[in-house]
Amino acid sequence: MSQERKHALLSASAASRWLICHPSARLEEQFPDAASDYAEEGSLAHEICELKVRQNFIKKQSAATFKKKLKALQEKDLYQKEMDGYTDEYLDYVSGIVHGFDSPPYIAVEKRLDYSHVVPEGFGTGDCVIIGGDVMHVIDFKYGKGVPVKAEGNPQMKLYAAGALKEYAFLYPIKEIRMHIVQPRIDYNNEGVIYVEELNAWLNAVVKPNAELAFKGEGEYRPSEETCRFCRAKHTCRARSEQNLELAKEDFKKPPLLTAEEIGPILKQAKDLKAWASDLEEWALKEVLSGGTVPGWKAVEGRSVRKFADQDKAFQILACSGMVEEEMLYVRKPHTLSEIEKMLGKKEFRELLADQVVKPPGKPTLAPEEDEREPITLQTSAEEDFKEE
Fold first, then answer.
1. Higher pLDDT residue, 385 or 162?
2. φ and ψ at 195, to 5 degrees?
3. Do 241 and 177 reside in the same domain of the chain?
4. For residue 168, which of 194, 139, 198, 134 has the smallest C-alpha distance?
5. Same structural domain for residues 53 and 184?
6. Are 21 and 154 within one domain?
7. Is there a single domain that holds both residue 212 and residue 239?
8. Residue 338: band (very low, low, confident or very high) from pLDDT cuts 50, 70, 90
9. Is 285 among the domain residues?
10. pLDDT at residue number 379
11. According to the model, what pLDDT value does residue 389 have?
12. What is the pLDDT, as a whole number, of residue 254?
């Protein structure tokens, strides 16, 4: 993943941005592509996935060699025990697809996929490609815990499919492409289907003209919550600034009260306005801490909380003083469900405690209309309205 961002200007992972906000790709070149701990953690999980899939389906090594390589990955700083369970889930998902074929399919992992025939200098890395007969599966493993990512209509997955089709179409009579996204940390797997004719139509009508504009740094800036979320230029982008400042010019004095029809679009704008203000604050703090100047602002120490310099030593003094019983210094507190799941591993947790887990309704929250979750209301039924106390 990091290699793709390092070398491909128009990467598949950023396609949802540059296909809409064309000049953003060139604008981002001014900013360093600093990999976060989350990205590095995801890269490590991908390495473990690759090792396990290769061992099971491509080139089986001796048990000792496999364990040695796995141990080397487990000794890295960002490794956590829960990675084993999540990568096993990915392996199980891949296994389900492989064993669904009547005869052994072709399998490739961490495959460089070149889609430069539709996107200038475009390429990416597919986590797993499986082909059997006229069906090709393109699988993407996501280790993040953010929002669920849909495979259906996903431009990243469709560009991977385009690269895989270019690579293998002369060897296999591919007609149907199944795109899969596996997100084990949020227990979410998603599948979408696209046919070759449909994919080619999208590549010619949508991708080629927009990619050409993006590669040249031409076209329009179209800031939005979606396009700006992971853009490296989002903190100081003028187009985003101007769009959000337009919200301040809303004439709220037409009638004394806003209508629901007016509030809907304002909420959508305000959501990115809030994110934009946070991004500006983050950028300004880094600027003044590094010795720069932001007129009207400075960095100061935030609120601090008292703590013991050495808690063990402080508790020892109290225990020796005789004024407080040692047992009174500690609170017995049960581990949370997530902590126990992490301790056991997801597979063992499910086997032992699946029937002990309940998921009560979440607290009502406002979401865009296109959100997949079912709408809820808190209206009472007629029976509840009229029942006796």
1. 162
2. -95, 155
3. no
4. 134
5. yes
6. yes
7. no
8. confident
9. yes
10. 62
11. 44
12. 60
- Residue 256 is predicted with a pLDDT of 64
Q: Which residue has the higher pLDDT, 226 or 114?
A: 114
Q: Is there a single domain that holds both residue 20 and residue 76?
A: yes
Instruction: Decide if 373 is inside a domain.
Output: no
- Is 229 contained in some domain? no
Residues 169 and 240 in one domain: no
Percent of the chain exceeding pLDDT 70 equals 92
Do 147 and 240 share a domain, yes or no? no
What is this structure's pTM?
Answer: 0.71
- Between 385 and 199, whose confidence is greater? 199
Q: Which domain holds residue 32?
A: 2-216
Rounded mean pLDDT, 199-214: 96
Q: What is the C-alpha to C-alpha distance for residues 356 and 352, in angstroms, rounded to an integer?
A: 9
Domain count, the chain: 3
Look up residue 189 and give its two tokens.
Answer: 């797997």
- Asked if the model's pLDDT at residue 237 lies above 90, the reply is no
pLDDT in tens, 5-47: 356 789 999 999 999 999 999 998 888 776 677 888 999 999 9
Tens-place pLDDT, residues 292-311:
888 888 888 888 888 899 99
For residues 266 and 159, membership in a common domain is answered with no
One-letter amino acid at 374 equals E
Specify if 381 maps to a domain. no
Half-sphere exposure of 353 (CA within 13 A, CB side): 12
As a three-state string, the secondary structure of the chain is CHHHHHHCCCCHHHHHHHCCCCCHHHHHCCCCCCCCHHHHHHHHHHHHHHHHHHHHHHCCCCHHHHHHHHHHHHCCCCCCCHHHHHHHHHHHHHHHHHCCCCCCCEEEEEEEEECCCCCCCCEEEEEEEEEECCEEEEEEECCCCCCCCCCCCCHHHHHHHHHHHHHHCCCCCCCEEEEEEEEHHHCEEEEEEEEHHHHHHHHHHHHHHHHHHHHHCCCCCCCCHHHHCCCCCCCCCHHHHHHHHHHHHCCCCCCCCCCHHHHHHHHHHHHHHHHHHHHHHHHHHHHHHCCCCECCECCCCCCCCCCCCCHHHHHHHHHHHCCCCHHHHCCCCCCCHHHHHHHHCHHHHHHHHHHHCCCCCCCCCCCCCCCCCCCCCCCCCHHHHHCCC
